[in-house]
Amino acid sequence: MQFRKITIVGVGLLGGSIGLAARKRRLAGEIAGYARREKTIAESEKIGALDYATTDLLAAVSGADLVILCTPLAQMRALTKQFLPALKRGAIVTDVGSVKADVVRGLETLVARAGAHFVGSHPMAGGEKMGVLAAKADLYANAVCVVTPTKKSHAVAVRKVEQFWKSLGAWTLRLDAAKHDLLVSRTSHLPHVAAAALASLVLDPKQPSAKAGLCATGFRDTTRIASGSPEMWRDITLANRKNVAQSLDAFVGELKKFQTALKKGDAKAVEKIFATAKARRDNWCVCCASPSSE
After folding, report:
1. Were both Cys, which of 9, 72, 141, 143 would link to 125 (CB 3.0–4.6 Å)?
2. What are the pLDDT digits (tens) for 142-162?
3. Closest to 15 in 3D by CA, of 59, 63, 58, 66
4. Which residues share a beta bridge with 171?
5. Are strands 120-123 and 171-174 parallel, antiparallel or unpaired?
6. Cα–Cα distance, 13 to 72 (Å, whole number)
7. Domains of the chain (ranges plus CATH)?
C-alpha cells in the first residue's frame, strides 16, 4: 500500500480507470472520488472504481495523501482553490492534463501555500468514449506517463508520483512542461484536430447521403478520436494554442506539398510522399509504438 487515502477529483474515463487500477493493485487503504453529479457517483459504485464518491469536494479531499485532478483543464485551478482548506499538509497533488505549462504554473504555488506538493503528470492514454462506465483497469498498462517537475518540486513527491504511475503499469518520462507542450502539440493534439476536421468535412449533412455509406475502415480508424469529449479538447487546444497553431502550419505545409505534386501529375513526388510516410510509420511501430490510444 503506497497511500492511506487517494482522492480522484473528476471520475470519468481517466479518473475511473485510475480508481479501478489502484484498487486492483491495492495501492491505497481508501480511494475516494469527487463528482458533480449523483449519476456519476452511482456509475462509479456500479463498476467498483472507488470505495466511495461524493459531491462534497472538501469531504472527498480531506485526509488524502494523494489528490489526482482528472477534470477538464479549465476547471483545475478553481477546484484546487476550493479544496485547499481540506488539503492535508504534506499531501501530493497531481493531474492528468494534456497541457502542462499552464497547469504547473497555476497550481504549483497555489498548492505550496497549503503546505502540500504539486507535481504535474500526463498519462498518454485515453479513448474516444467518455464517462466512468468506459473506464478500464488496464488503461495505463504500457502507456507513457510524462511527469513535469520544476526546480521547486519536492524530490520525494516527484518520486512518489512516478512510482504511482509505474504501479499502474505505465512507463514514466520526465520532461520540462514547456517542452512537453511543444512535443504533444504534434503527437497528440494535431491528430485530434485533423480527425475532427476530416470527420466534419466528409460527414457534412450538406453532402450526398450516400457518401457516409462509402466510409469504410480507413475513415473509421483515422477519425476514431474525433468522438472524444468536445469540452476536453476545447480546453486542451486553447491552453496549447500557440504550439497547436504552429503544428497546424506545418501540417498544412505537408498537405500543400502533396497538393502541388498531385496537380502537376508528378508520379515520383506523390509516390515518394507515400513511401516516406510508410517507412517512418513502420519504423515507429517497430521501435516506439505503445498500446496507448491518446
Report:
1. 143
2. 999 999 999 999 999 999 999
3. 66
4. 144
5. unpaired
6. 12
7. 3-178 (3.40.50.720), 179-287 (1.10.3660.10)
